[in-house]
Structure formats: structure tokens, C-alpha cells
Amino acid sequence: MEARVAAIASGEAGELVWLLEHPPLYTAGVSARDSDLLDAGRFPVFPSGRGGQYTYHGPGQRVAYVMLDLSARGRDVRAFVSALEAWILEALAQFAVDGAIRQGRVGVWIERREPGAPPREDKIAAIGVKVRRWVSYHGVSLNVEPDLGHFSGIIPCGQADFGVTSLADLGLTCTMDDADDALRTAFRSVFGAMEPAAAPWEAPAGPGGAAG
Description:
Layout: H1 2-9, E1 16-20, E2 25-28, E3 45-47, E4 54-57, E5 61-67, H2 77-93, E6 100-102, E7 105-112, E8 120-132, E9 135-143, E10 163-164, H3 176-191, E11 195-196, E12 210-211
Parallel strand pairs: 1-12, 2-3, 8-10, 11-12
Antiparallel strand pairs: 1-5, 2-4, 5-9, 6-7, 7-8, 8-9
Helix pairs in contact: 2-3
């Protein structure tokens, strides 16, 4: 990813979005606190240069690494993060899911109202980015159908008072392919058209935008 970012910044490669799944692991952003890692031996823990704190990645969660040239997109990091939020909100809307943005809490949230229980908000998508030479990297993770119990080894994003949810947890039958279709459609609406691309180990990096 960092090699691709350097190539984009130098004009040797085009923008790229990777859609992938990780094996179960925790990543620590630059603001991660040791006290938020509750079970250090549960899964591998990887330091990460992205913004934010601890998060979980694993099967059933779509991770999108977003490598865009912000020099051509306004050089506004706040606007870029807002665009990432809008991307997820629009993708969720395709499943009739109302996501929400909350001041002071990065990510996308779902308001839960269940009989006999007080209202609560759970996170369905996390956002953690870094920008180098005005090229973005890292990105977002959307919970499609992960094992939500795996989040219990950390305090996700340092938010102890909130839970996590997924499309499956909300009662939706949604495959990863369904989620990818929604993400691709929403991406074109928010960021503009991009073309399908081979994985970087299958073809050399070339000019022009691509979404993999």
C-alpha cells in the first residue's frame, strides 16, 4: 500500500481502492492506548500509521484501502473524511439502513431501539486514514457479517460506551458480493467513476483510476 501511495504521489501510478478481508487481527492507530487492548494474546496485534485507536479486522468485514490523489481533489482532509462517511452512508442506504454521523465520534453509527431496552448506538463502519504527499491511504471497514464477539478483545476506537453491529446483526441477509456492489455504486456517486483493476500482484501499476 505504501509503495502504491508513493507511486501515485510521483505520478507513476493511478488512484486505487482495494476491497479485501483480513484474517482475525487487531490494528493500533497512532492514538491507541495500551489500556484499550483488553486481550493482547487473542489475535495478532499490528501497529498502524493510520489515525485512530484500536480496531478489529477479520472475516466477514469488508476493508477498503483508499488511495486517492487529494492534490486533484481539493487538498482538504476534513472534506475527504466527510466524503468517506458519505460513501458508507450511501452504501448502507441501498440496504434501507439508516446510518448516522456523530460529532466527536469518527465512523458510521446505527441507532438501535429494541423493546424493553434503552436506545443505544452501535458502530457499523470504522474510518482511519493517513495522508502522505497528499495521497490518502488506509481507509474504512464495514461490518457485513463478522463475528462481533471478536471485538471484545479491545475497546473499539476507544469508545467504551458504545457497541458494534453489522448488516447481519441488523437482520439483513447480505453477502460480501452484495456489500461490494453497494460500495462500488456509492463510490461512483461520491468520488466519481473508477474502473475495475487487477490486483497489484497480477498486473503492473499504470496510469488512470481504478477500483479493485
